[in-house]
Amino acid sequence: MQHPFEPKRQPMFDGGSLNRRDWMKLCAAGAVGTSVSGWFGAFANDVAARTDRRRSCILLWMSGGPSQIDTFDLKPGHANGGTFQEIETAVPGMKFSQHLPRLAKLSNHLAVVRSMSTKEGDHSRATLLAHCGYMPQGPVQYPTFGSLIANELGREGAELPNFVSIAPNRAISPASYDPGFLGAQLAPLVVGNGAAVPNGAANQMEASNDLKVQDLEPSKEIPSKTLETRLTRLRSMNGRFFENFSGPPAQSYNAAYEHAVRLMRSEAASAFSLDQEPDVVREAYGKNRFGQGCLLARRLIERNVPFVEITLGGIDQQILGWDTHAENFDKIKQLSQVLDSGWGTLIEELRDRGRLDDTLIVWMGEFGRTPKINPQGGRDHYPQVWSTVLAGGGIQGGQTIGRTSADGMEVEDRPVAIPDLLATICQGLGIDPMKSNISNVGRPIRLVDPAAKALKEIVG
Amino acid sequence: MMGTRLRLIFPRVVLVLALSLTLTATDNTPAEDLVGTPATPVAERKMPAADLARWIDEQFQRDWKQQGIVPAPLTNDSEFVRRAFLDLIGRIPSVAEVREFLDDPTPDKRPYLVEELLQRGAFANHLANTFRDLMLAGTTAPETRALAPSLEIWLKLRFTANMPYDQVVSELLTAPLDRPAIPRAPTPLAFYQAAEFKPEQLAANASRVFMGIQVQCAQCHDHPFAEWKQPQFWSFAAFFKNVSPQGTDGQAMMQSDDIDGIKIPGKDVLVPALFLDGSPPVRDSKDNRRAMLAHWVTSPTNPYFAKAAVNRVWGSYLGRGFVQPLDDLDPSHPPAYPEIFDALCTQFRLHHYDLKYLIRVIAATQVYQLSCRGAPREGEDHLAVQFARMPLRRLTSDQIYASFIQATGFREATPNISENVARDEFQEKFADSSVSPTEIKTTILQALSLMNGRHVTLATDLEKSEFLSVIAEAPFLDASGRIESLFLATLSRMPDDAERQLFVDALGTDESKAALADLFWMLLNSAEFLLNH
User: Fold this and answer.
1) Residues B135 and B309: beta-carbon distance below 8 Å
2) pLDDT in tens, A271-325
3) Interface residue A29 vs chain B (CB under 8 A)
4) Chain B environment of A442 (Cβ under 8 Å)
5) What is this structure's pTM?
6) Which residue of A424, A432, B332, B459 sits 20 to 30 Å from the alpha carbon of A400, by its own alpha carbon?
7) Distance from CA of B310 to the nearest CA of A (A)
């Protein structure tokens, strides 16, 4: 399909006869008051036409580096263990922290990797490594993982962007949100980037307004016909400009406008109207940004968005909430409650709606935390030993991978590097991690570092 | 307004003098030294800006010739006036400023315009914004953002006085760290807040911003200064020990035993305070720890100080640095055109780190005046890599806000000295933490806010937009004149014949005023408005 903003050589101001019909169709769809359930019909044909329903991926990003010893790899009885108790889960022998009761009931869907072992101990670099799978070297602009997956599983011309990132903290590592050599078309749509809404905000409106796509609707005073005229002329004007001027900023502008117009026209954008959900559901997810973000993720993947990232950045406006150098236990307890209701409800809802088999959920931060508790009652950065969790589609749940020592200081069995984990995710999504893209320097780059080995126990 | 009034105050002869002598307040070179200045930079001899600019152009031209490169043509006047305003003072020119420049018949009007912009208050303002971004590196933490205006004002005061850059950095590194008593009181505290007052983060930020050295990366390869490992890093971080906005802030005198520095977290090792080249601070110095550090960072014997500044400023004007990435002067990325880079660094130092001189040189080159036209659609623009074509750059959030104000005559309904809601909204919406101006992305949300957001909606509302009403009602304008005014106000150029014709036709109906609003909306949303070209 010809996109409304694609720069194209054409006679001056012919109104774009070539794709005018498509354009008018797009415009017509934007008429106010069409039925809310319209999207379902629109995708029905599409789903029917494909026997292999594509999978989606949800990344729960724990910014700051969550403590493995206080979540999924407790060390009861050891001085490093801290104050939390272990609880039994649905799977015999699998134990989690006492502050994750909902997830404990769902543990048959979870594969806990306890033996992550990496080398980056700086927030920014570790975030980049976890997101891209490669450390920057030379001029290659490595794409972030969400863009790579969206490129594999997304559809061109989809109404919603193929990659949505909810409430990220981009400043910690801007390149972790960059589509790199894949180009601006695969940049994430970022929502919930406004003023930090405290997780645990009593005010539900606040928590969800923040996750809306701002300015999605044209001003009521602009008749839709006027808007059509404006957009048509804008496209012609830009088309002529792009005949003389090109480069990454032009491509980025173009991709953004094209997506924005499509989103304005799209009924699928109602995915962002969380108020369509019953209050009891919203309560279950937790009335905070992360909880509502999980609900939004469910609504997005139901509309075939292949990659959604939700960041749990912290409580009360912290930006690296998991970075618990001090008062570790109070903070992790609060964060665990937010995490447990958001993630737990997400798994249950996906399961009940028959979507869990198609949806791979990844829980990870940039590194773990020191087993030894520091004098401030905190834990510091520790990339040597940490945990991640995979859940849902394509995953053999109900198991733990790897083993750590009694004091939590060492990986005793099956050390896993970032590329190993990413390769596992690729396979779980039905993607060959050794597939290549052509990079900006003309060299083919594999989705995941060729040395990576997927975890067979998890993805068969 | 750049008008006749200014020319009376600033006769051309003075400007020519300023261009050729570039004397600054800190300049005490005997006059005879400037007589018969050689046309090539000689070490340890100052060179007037215009001469250095000419020499730089000669070097590029010689290299392009050798490589068989045909550079892009020079920009036309409308492109140049827009680019110069955006780069030097951070906004597009007004309609009157464009017209005046286009109508000026004198052949040397470009350097003249540059000089005139360098003298404006907005120049210091824009430079302050540029350095604020550099120092805060796109941080979104609310505590830091609250302090950002104080840093802007602190920088602006210094750039207005054209304080030498080494002194600015020294003052920043040794500033008292009291919380501002009133909002927006000048203080560089934001730089420290961005690092959460942590010694290791401050050390990393200071070396990146002021020396272009990425200390975090030194863990995995050779460091420019030395074999560089964790203890050396913490030794450097020791200079920022006990830095905090409450009570002791590292201003305390260094006791001799205090030099034994800092503990590496997680290890029971105490490391001494050492500079990155391994040299110790002078023990008998009366200075406190941060003052010693500032002295070492800005010392003429530290080549990285000038290099980092020159590479950044050059990069912000030309879209790419001699060294890429702009903030990583690691030996593994050697500079392009090292002779030019060195000459600029040397002259910057000889001119006592005068940023205005540096910018005067850059803006006077032909390289800076090359067009963006004709870059390839796909892949890398090889001409741009050789500085033979100007790459496109997205406007920064500050440039978008200031240009939007300029184009629409927007005024905040309730102006308030301590907060500027619209500016904050633009900054938040268009903020980008990219290091390079060519890497700034346009996002879906930005596109939506320009199409549907309240600012553009108001500006294009015939009832509510004063500027648009004036254009629509002005009795001395015909349809063509109205169109022309809107083009000049937004794109700093005349509409071409096809554009003129199209909109004259649209205005010809009864809907003429509405058509004018449609046109204005389109111009404010156009790629041409949002990009620096």
Assistant:
1) no
2) 999 999 999 999 999 999 999 999 999 999 999 999 999 999 877 666 788 999 9
3) no
4) 379
5) 0.82
6) A432
7) 21
